Amino acid sequence: MSNKIGIVVVGVGRWGVHLVRQFYQNPLTKVVAIVDQNPERLPAVQQQFNLDLSSVVLAKDWAEVRELPGIQAVAIATPASTHYCLIKDALNQGYHVLAEKPLTLDPQECLELSHLAEQKQRQLMVDHTYLFHPAVQRGKEAIAALGKLRYGYAARTHLGPVRSDVDALWDLAIHDICIFNFWLGETPIQVQATGKIWLERSGNSANSNISQEITTENKLFTQGLADFVTVNLTYPSGFEARIHLCWCNPDKQRRLCVAGSQGTLIFDEMSPNAPLMIQHGFLERNNETWQPVGQKSEVIAVSPGEPLRLVCDRFLDLVINPNQPSKNQPISSGWLGAELVQIITALSKSLNQGGIPIKIPR
């Protein structure tokens, strides 16, 4: 009998295909089944990875494979509105779960699933990939060189991909909020969001039947799916961050910065040769004027490593060794997923109410 971890990948869209690649190529795992409701995706994945159909089941519905022998874990990369039911059933079946972000669209559902995972003694991990990015990990250490932290700013823009299940806020903001929270070691106490809708208003979209069927989405996206969103975050320390998000901007940006009294730490994914750097410098009083001093650029060395592979490796490590010391526990647990969904939900509330500030319950 094989000692490999049997895993099912549910959802093989843009991101799910990468999960198939990771687990199909990993010597510790055996892909037992692949599930997707789109009839075109399954043969495409079979061809892309030259899957042996005598050992990998291709199915259109989770119900067809949920009781197959040899399953120990499930990776879920379906629309966010489907996560709750799929994750709950997988945990009740006794499977470990790796879920694409966001964990669900409801913070109470996230907490329920996290409690269920504890009760079942199973791993529930959320694929917040940036928390495993070598540049983000290194940035956590480098931030000490900035002196007193003052404020942050980020931009995440491109032409698509445009989603039909969530807006740009839910699709994009969670990445930058993750990084800010991780680097600062704190979570926001107040949030604010404003936005614009250019592509799909409620009831006018080619996918409007989807939003009408999903009551949770209707509550979150009462005006439709925002293509452009500006987010403001306020932290207990007084640190403030602004995030610019857009699906309709050909100027592709993946950039996040933290400014302090001694310099600014910059994480720029569009700069592959130097994704992490510090612009050192500060202002010094000279008689009646302020003069910039200490200006220099420092490229921060970053270890190699594909973030998604590091996510999957950590998940498998926890499946194999569930009783590791606390310092080795996942930095992207269901509990953290619930915390982030609470923040995004508050931002949706602010967005739907014209940008009023919303307090985050502690």
TrEMBL record:
Domain GFO/IDH/MocA-like oxidoreductase: 167-265
SUPFAM superfamilies recorded: Glyceraldehyde-3-phosphate dehydrogenase-like, C-terminal domain (SSF55347), NAD(P)-binding Rossmann-fold domains (SSF51735)
Superkingdom classification of source: Bacteria
UniProt xrefs under InterPro entries: Gfo/Idh/MocA-like_OxRdtase_N, Gfo/Idh/MocA_Oxidoreductases, GFO_IDH_MocA-like_dom, NAD(P)-bd_dom_sf
Annotated source species: Planktothricoides raciborskii FACHB-1370
Record protein name field: Gfo/Idh/MocA family oxidoreductase
Domain Gfo/Idh/MocA-like oxidoreductase N-terminal: 6-128
Lineage of source species: Bacteria, Bacillati, Cyanobacteriota, Cyanophyceae, Oscillatoriophycideae
